[in-house]
Amino acid sequence: MSDSQNIPQDVPLPEPTLLSLASMLASQAMISVGVFPHPVDGSTTIRLHQGKHLIDTVALLDEKTKASQTDEEKKTFENIIHELRMLYVAAQNEQQRRENS
């Protein structure tokens, strides 16, 4: 097997949108709070500071673009931010449980 077979193909991507940016940040936040494994090393380490920063960044993006958002974008941001905050609280609880074990 050659090295080129291990490298992901450079495929065309769709046009960037506000929601695709929010989704990318949300995915990174979910990795930070241990919901998804890290794509490079496969770890599910909880990184609360990083997770909070990413969640706050999604909330900032929502706040700064609210006046020009479509109804779909408003609802999606509301759902993403709510879900990320709930996952963050769960990660905090899990980290405390691990520390107290």
Tag the structure with descriptive keywords:
101 residues, 62% helix, flat
Architecture overview:
This protein has one domain (16-100). It is flat and about 45 Å long. It has 3 helices and no strands. By secondary structure, the chain is mainly alpha-helical.
Measured between the Cα atoms of the first and last residue, the distance is 45 Å
Oligomer: single chain
What ranges have pLDDT less than 50 throughout 5 or more consecutive residues?
Answer: none
Bin the helical content: 55-70%
Average pLDDT metric: 93
> What can be said about the biggest beta sheet?
none
Number of helices: 3
Rg over C-alpha atoms, rounded to the nearest angstrom:
16 Å
Tally of strands: 0
Instruction: Give the structural class.
Output: mainly alpha
> How many individual domains?
1
What sequence of helices (H) and strands (E) makes up the elements?
A: HHH
What percentage of amino acids are in beta strands?
A: under 5%
| Broad shape | flat
